C-alpha cells in the first residue's frame, strides 16, 4: 500500500487552472499554460517563477517549451511565440477560426490542431503559415510528426518529387474517429486510418518500428503500420475512454477513464499489468526509472512499481484534476486545474526501486527454476533499458 507524500513546494502564482506543463530539452525550465490566459516560466534549479507571458485574449489550452523559445496556443484562435530570456512575445500565428488545442514543434516547423477541423503548419521563424491540412469532419485533438526517412527504404519512396524534397509527415487524430497522415510539403492526405468508433484522444509514434498507437473514446487502443496504413492490433480491455499513452521499450502504458492504467507488450498485444487505486479517470502518466507515475481526476498523483503494479506512494495536496506531470532530477512536477504547480521529492522511492531491482537480480539461481529465472533476467534487462529511456 502506498504512503502519502507532501509537496516540497507549492507554486500558486496562476489565477486559473493549469492546463499543460512543458519541460525544456535541457531540463533547466518548466512552462505552465493556464486558464488565466497567461503562461509562466519556472526554473528547475530553485523552482522560482522566471517569466510571466501575457498577451492571449482567452485561456491557454497547451504549451511547448524549447531552450530559448516558448510556444502557447489559446481559445483566442492564436498561437504565440515568446522569448524565454526577455518574456516578450516575438510572433503571433493567426489563421485558425476556432480554439487551438494542440501544438507541436519539429525542426523549423510549428504544427497546430484546432476545433475548426484543420491542422496547420507554420514557419517558426517567419510567422507565416506554410500549409493547411483540411479533411477532418470534426476537431483535431492530437498531433504527431515524422519523416519518411525514418520509416521508408529508398526503393519504397515513390511519391511526387515535391513531396520527396521535404519527406515530412504530420499525423492528426480527430473526434471524427479517424487518424490521418499528411504530406507536410503539399498538404495532401497520404492515408486515412479507419477503425475507431470514437474520438481519437491520444497518439504515440514509434517511427523506428513503423508503428503508430492511437487511443480513443471507444475504449480501445489500436496499432497501425504507418507505411501501409494496416491496422495491426486492437487492445480492448479498458472499460472507459483511453486518455493518455506512454511507450517505453516496447511496453505500452495506457491511462483510462475506467480509473486504471494498463501495461501491454507491444509485440504480442498481451496485457501484462493493471495499475489500480485511482478514484477517478487517469488523466496523465509518465514512466521514470522503473516507476509509473500517474495523475488523476481524483486530484492525486501516484507512483507504482511498473513491473509488479504495487502502489508505492500517493501524492496528496491538489484540489482538482491533475492535468500534466513532468519529472526532472528526481523531482516530480504536477500541474492541476486548481491553479497550482506542486513539486515532490521522489528520491526515496527511486532509490528503493533500484535496491529492489539489484536484490532480485543478485538472487542465486536454482537448476529447477532455470527457465523461469531466464525469463526474469530478460525482464530485468528490459527494465535496465527502460531506466535509460524513462525521462
Automatic annotation (TrEMBL):
InterPro entries according to UniProt: Quino_amine_DH_bsu, WD40/YVTN_repeat-like_dom_sf, WD40_PAC1, WD40_repeat_CS, WD40_repeat_dom_sf, WD40_rpt, WDR86-like
Entry's transmembrane regions: none
Start and end residues of the WD repeats are 11-43, 53-92, 93-132, 169-192, 193-234, 235-274, 315-347
UniProt-listed PROSITE patterns? WD_REPEATS_1, WD_REPEATS_2, WD_REPEATS_REGION
Q: Which UniProt keywords apply?
A: Repeat, WD repeat
Pfam families from the UniProt entry: WD40
What the entry lists under Gene3D superfamilies is as follows: YVTN repeat-like/Quinoprotein amine dehydrogenase
The record, for SUPFAM superfamilies, names: WD40 repeat-like, YVTN repeat-like/Quinoprotein amine dehydrogenase
Please state what the protein is called.
Answer: WDR86 protein
Amino acid at each position: 500500500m502506498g504512503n502519502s507524500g507532501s509537496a516540497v513546494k507549492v507554486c500558486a502564482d496562476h489565477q486559473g487552472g493549469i492546463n499543460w506543463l512543458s519541460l525544456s530539452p535541457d531540463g533547466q525550465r518548466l512552462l505552465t499554460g493556464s486558464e488565466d490566459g497567461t503562461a509562466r516560466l519556472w526554473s528547475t534549479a530553485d523552482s522560482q517563477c522566471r517569466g510571466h507571458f501575457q498577451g492571449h485574449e482567452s485561456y491557454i489550452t497547451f504549451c511547448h517549451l524549447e531552450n530559448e523559445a516558448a510556444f502557447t496556443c489559446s481559445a483566442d484562435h492564436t498561437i504565440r511565440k515568446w522569448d524565454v530570456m526577455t518574456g516578450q512575445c516575438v510572433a503571433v500565428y493567426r489563421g485558425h477560426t476556432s480554439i487551438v488545442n494542440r501544438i507541436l514543434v519539429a525542426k523549423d516547423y510549428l504544427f497546430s490542431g484546432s476545433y475548426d477541423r484543420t491542422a496547420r503548419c507554420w514557419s517558426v521563424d517567419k510567422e507565416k503559415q506554410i500549409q493547411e491540412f483540411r479533411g477532418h469532419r470534426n476537431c483535431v485533438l492530437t498531433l504527431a510528426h515524422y519523416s519518411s526517412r525514418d520509416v521508408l527504404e529508398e526503393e519504397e519512396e515513390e511519391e511526387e518529387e515535391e513531396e520527396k524534397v521535404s519527406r515530412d509527415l504530420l499525423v492528426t487524430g480527430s473526434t471524427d474517429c479517424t487518424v490521418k497522415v499528411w504530406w507536410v510539403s503539399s498538404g495532401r492526405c497520404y492515408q486515412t486510418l479507419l477503425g475507431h468508433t470514437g474520438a481519437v484522444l491520444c497518439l504515440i509514434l514509434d517511427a523506428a518500428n513503423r508503428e503508430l498507437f492511437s487511443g480513443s473514446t471507444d475504449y480501445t487502443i489500436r496499432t497501425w503500420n504507418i507505411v501501409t496504413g494496416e491496422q495491426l492490433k486492437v487492445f480492448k480491455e479498458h472499460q472507459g475512454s483511453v486518455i493518455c499513452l506512454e511507450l517505453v521499450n516496447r511496453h505500452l502504458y495506457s491511462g483510462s477513464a475506467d480509473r486504471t492504467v494498463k501495461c501491454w507488450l507491444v509485440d504480442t498485444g498481451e496485457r501484462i499489468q493493471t495499475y489500480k487505486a485511482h478514484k477517478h479517470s487517469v488523466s496523465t502518466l509518465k514512466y521514470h526509472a522503473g516507476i509509473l507515475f500517474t495523475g488523476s481526476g481524483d486530484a492525486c498523483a501516484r507512483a507504482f512499481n511498473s513491473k509488479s503494479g504495487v502502489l508505492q506512494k500517493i501524492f496528496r495536496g491538489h484540489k482538482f484534476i491533475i492535468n500534466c506531470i513532468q519529472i526532472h532530477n528526481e523531482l516530480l512536477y504536477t500541474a492541476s486545474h486548481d491553479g497550482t504547480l506542486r513539486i515532490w521529492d521522489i528520491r526515496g522511492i527511486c532509490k528503493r526501486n533500484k535496491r529492489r531491482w539489484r536484490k532480485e537480480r543478485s538472487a542465486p539461481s536454482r537448476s529447477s527454476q532455470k527457465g523461469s529465472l531466464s525469463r526474469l533476467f530478460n525482464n530485468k534487462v528490459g527494465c535496465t533499458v527502460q531506466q535509460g529511456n524513462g525521462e
